[in-house]
Amino acid sequence: MSVLRPFRATDMFKFNHINLDLWTETYAINFYLGYFSRWPDMCAVQETPQGRIMGYVIGKAEGAGIERHGHVTALSVAPEYRRLGLSRKFMAWLEQVSDENYRGYFVDLYVRCVNTAAITMYESFGYSVYRRVKEYYSNLGLGLNPRDEEDGFDMRKPLPRDPMRRSVRANGRDITVSAHEVP
C-alpha cells in the first residue's frame, strides 16, 4: 500500500536511495525547487505508511495551443518497489493534472533508447514513440552502442482534448531530429 501526495522540498533529503539508479537523471537542488515553485501540482511522491519514499514524479506544463502539454521531467521508483504499479499510478495522476489543470493535448516524456524496460512500460500505458532525438543524453559508458546510449525517444500519449490523435504518429521511430531542434 502507498500514499500519493504532493512533493515537499524536504523530500529532497529523503530520496537519495531512488536517485542512485543508473537510469535516473539527477539534478541540482535549485532545479527541483524551481519545479516545486512553478508546477507544485505536477510534483508528487508515493510513500509507505511509515513515510519511506518509494518513488517520485516531477512534471511541468509547456507549449501553447494544440502543442499545450504535460511533460514528465523525472519519474523514478526505488528498485525494491518496482513492479507494484507505482509508475502507472504516477502517470495516470500526471495525465489527469495535465488534462484538467493545464488543458493539455498530450503528455510527453523522454527515455533513453537503450532503456527497453522503460520503453515497454510506457508503451503498456498507451505511449508511443513520436521521434528519436540525437544526443539528448550524455553517454552512460556501458559499452553499448554510444548512439543508443545518448539518443532519447520522445514518447507521447494523447489526452481527451486530442481525439484525432494529432499529437502522435505511427512511424515515430523513423523520425530523427537533433537535440538542438527540441525546445
Keywords:
single chain; alpha+beta
What is the topological layout?
Elements: E1 3-6, H1 16-19, H2 29-38, E2 43-47, E3 53-62, E4 69-77, H3 86-100, E5 106-112, H4 116-124, E6 128-134, H5 146-150, E7 152-158, E8 176-178
Parallel strand pairs: 4-5, 6-8
Antiparallel strand pairs: 1-2, 2-3, 3-4, 5-7, 6-7
What does this entry look like structurally?
The mean pLDDT is 90. An 8-stranded mixed sheet has the order 1-2-3-4-5-7-6-8, sandwiched between helices. It has 183 residues and is an alpha+beta fold. The chain has helices at 16-19, 29-38, 86-100, 116-124, 146-150; strands spanning 3-6, 43-47, 53-62, 69-77, 106-112, 128-134, 152-158, 176-178. Helix 3 (86-100) links the parallel strand 4 (69-77) and strand 5. It is globular, with a radius of gyration of 16 Å.
